Amino acid sequence: xxxxxxxxxxxxxxxxxxxxxxxxxxxxxxxxxxxxxxxxxxxxxxxxxxxxxxxxxxxxxxxxxxxxxxxxxxxxxxxxxxxxxxxxxxxxxxxxxxxxxxxxxxxxxxxxxxxxxxxxxxxxxxxxxxxxxxxxxxxxxxxxxxxxxxxxxxxxxxxxxxxxxxxxxx
Length: 170
Hints:
Elements: E1 21-25, E2 36-39, E3 96-102, E4 116-122, E5 125-130, E6 149-154
Parallel strand pairs: 1-2, 3-4, 5-6
């Protein structure tokens, strides 16, 4: 899915709307909130980094305060087309690289294992995945999983597949 799609990957009809486009910015220039701000030329390789040195707070947060449907806080996109391209990435030396949490009440992360690439916790399902390899393929009509399901997957070949390189258990 490209950001050029006017409805984005979720079919929202006001997707990535901006006031103006600033496509000739250089490192050190100020940027405008609510606008598309694009570094160009030799400065295009510079990242914008926000750092925070506090143990119990985030360095950057995006919040959408609308309480209606189709509400999203943060979105990441990459136009890369080859292996290794990533839309959203997370890394952590000993915690969770990426975490998705949809639970009430809030969970205590100390009660779960560390050094996990992707962590999912939900009141109904922990992780839900669906593969749609053919263009314009509609989501599966399979009924939703039962509450309490850890991992649920739908695919044309396999729903969930795994591999073990270790000796395993006898």
